[in-house]
Design a protein that fits this description.
Two copies of one chain form a homodimer.
Chain A: H1 16-26, E1 29-30, H2 32-35, H3 43-46, E2 50-54, H4 56-64, E3 69-75, H5 83-98, E4 101-106, H6 108-113, H7 119-135, E5 143-147, H8 153-164, H9 168-175, H10 180-194, E6 206-212, H11 216-228, E7 239-243, H12 269-278, H13 287-293, H14 301-310, H15 314-325, H16 331-359, H17 361-365
Parallel strand pairs in A: 3-4, 3-6, 4-5, 6-7
Antiparallel strand pairs in A: 1-2, 2-7
Helix pairs in contact in A: 7-16, 8-10, 10-11, 12-16, 14-16
């Protein structure tokens, strides 16, 4: 999940067939065109959780040719970390494992200016994101974290630079009704994506940005601005890849704003159990009917948990799917198994999270804004 | 001269009577209300070159009570330094002499983004401004200089902060048609004026900003934003004072954009002589007529030079005035004396300027942007 707050979800809640529209409408390429180029796979690609990209083939080729390569993403620190965020952290972990540099921005400027959130709370949440990223296995020595409001002059200079070469109409087309806050935040986001190309930040010209599909307009703006600064700053277009959002337990996008339907990484076990018990499934009206007709996993929020996190092998995922549609395993049993697996995952993560917090490593990996 | 580029001169070229309209229309106070509070006078106040203010009485009172006090101004590095800029430098020198802190911003971000000037040239001009300020007598150890694109995160954070509490309509009312560049630059300007109140920048809450009258809308925006951050950051409203622009040799505002009618501090002597020879005066059609009717100093660009720089005592200025209106001294003779005095001033300044440049002190007082 990228961090922009702007409401820009022209596709609403999409099932897999809707995603294919993006290919036609916006020129996003199907992920299938590059999966084979990856020497190390990840279930997110193979299960089409990551479903599309722009120029990812170029990124992969450059990466394997030994070019300095980076993956950049951002988190909007507007609430506690849930499984939707963990998906992005898992993507970062994958890229770090195969050898790319990882850089993560905490979008505290935008949280303050556009979302109008409490400043202290924002910083606290930002730290929580970083702690979870480290607890999930990102290397504290190899991952760069920064707060938007606490970086260096060479980064902020880009915001001024970009403002020269972007028009009001262009931004309005992307962001709808503009405010000064939206304009400053949007240009800050472009700086977040492109600054790593500068010598001062490691000169990583091979950049990939994992985002949700709704963020593609920002990616296009960023690519346009990269073109406009190709002479002046030597910028090249970043690549991007697009993931689906994990579904919340009510069947809509998982979001901190509807906490009853999100699984937060720090939820107590009994809270998780209650949420799973209440979760929307693809079950039928009666058990008999379900035994006869089978369940509908594509409508099931529990199946999503298997798809994203709980089914580690494709075989296990296929079995779960087949057991459902054949009517062999009913929702109660399936939920029970999901809960068991989920609690193991969460308990391990919480334990590592506590270790990270107690170790004091956060203060070594990121400097918090003074105010 | 403050640095904002935005066209906002509702008053056009004003003579002294027009300035009084500002008092009624915008609530600017006449400078007369505070001159007596200043223990050390300056000819700019007494000659009404500085003609108005907002809350300057408060600033003076706080200053003499021993409160930390600062004067902040900015230069748009869009060309070589001329006498109009020297007037502002002289104001700063006065404030430094009486004991206030002086801080000067080079508006290179705005020069780049709004004025769309060449970046390298802008930085070069910025350095020229600083060198002239030091050559004119600002203390290199006591004056802070910075480039907008090369400051610290605690300053840039303010731009994000301010963006939250300002509306599009408010800015449009001040700046006319908005562009992303204008919005970012305007908020940067507010940060320039207010950042000195932060602990990180010396905690100077008693701020005065000398500007041209056309910049007053920006001062009002800044004062409003100071109010809106009074709780969060403890900001208080800055004071301001307003000067008239020195007239160019064609009778319009002196400006780098009409170089033939401006006296640049680095102009060669023969160039200066030619410009003075061509300068608009308040002379009559014939010498005879002038001897009979007298000249019109309020229409004369040479008289302006006396008013601002060449007449050091009020007695000398009065004599020059009387010699003109009585027809006793004609334009040729008056120009000759002006040229002599001007060349002395310029030659001395150029000599000190060269010393400053050769001393390498610039690199000690300001860090130039990396790109």
């Amino acid at each position: 999940m990228f961090y922009l707050n702007i409401k820009l979800d022209p596709w609403g809640h999409m099932d897999i067939s809707d995603y294919s529209k993006l290919y036609e409408l916006f020129g996003i390429e199907p992920i299938d065109t590059v999966i084979d180029d990856l020497r190390v796979k990840h279930r997110f690609f193979e299960r089409r959780v990551v479903f599309g990209h722009r120029d990812m083939g170029k990124w992969i080729k450059n990466f394997y040719s030994g070019e300095k390569s980076i993956v950049l993403t951002g988190f909007m620190p507007s609430g506690h970390v849930h499984l939707g965020h963990l998906m992005v952290i898992e993507e970062l972990k994958y890229f770090q494992k195969i050898g790319a540099k990882v850089r993560v921005v905490i979008a505290d400027a935008e949280a303050y200016a556009v979302r109008r959130l409490d400043r202290d709370l924002t910083i606290k949440y930002g730290v929580e994101y970083i702690a979870h990223a480290l607890a999930w296995g990102l290397d504290s020595l190899e991952t760069d974290f920064y707060f938007q409001t606490n970086y260096s002059e060479d980064y902020y200079r880009l915001i001024h630079f970009f403002s020269r070469k972007v028009s009001f109409n262009e931004m309005e087309a992307i962001y709808g009704e503009l405010t000064p806050a939206k304009i400053v935040s949007a240009l800050t986001q472009v700086a977040d994506i492109l600054h790593s190309q500068l010598k001062e930040f490691g000169e990583y010209r091979n950049i990939i940005v994992p985002v949700g599909a709704d963020q593609d307009p920002h990616i296009r703006l960023t690519r346009d601005l990269a073109d406009r600064f190709s002479n002046e700053l030597g910028f090249v277009r970043p690549s991007s890849m697009y993931h689906k959002f994990i579904t919340g337990l009510d069947g809509n996008k998982m979001s901190s704003s509807r906490p009853d339907y999100a699984i937060f990484l720090l939820d107590d076990n009994d809270i998780v159990a209650k949420k799973i018990a209440m979760a929307l499934t693809g079950g039928r009206a009666t058990a008999d009917e379900q035994r006869k007709l089978g369940g509908e996993p594509h409508k099931c929020s529990i199946y999503q948990l298997y798809l994203y996190f709980l089914a580690e092998t494709d075989g296990e995922l296929r079995d779960t799917y087949n057991d459902c549609i054949s009517g062999k395993v009913l929702c109660g049993q399936c939920k029970k198994r999901a809960l068991e697996k989920l609690l193991i995952l969460l308990n391990e993560q919480r334990s590592r999270f506590r270790d990270v917090v107690e170790s004091g490593v956060i203060d070594k990996v990121v400097e918090k804004p003074k105010f």
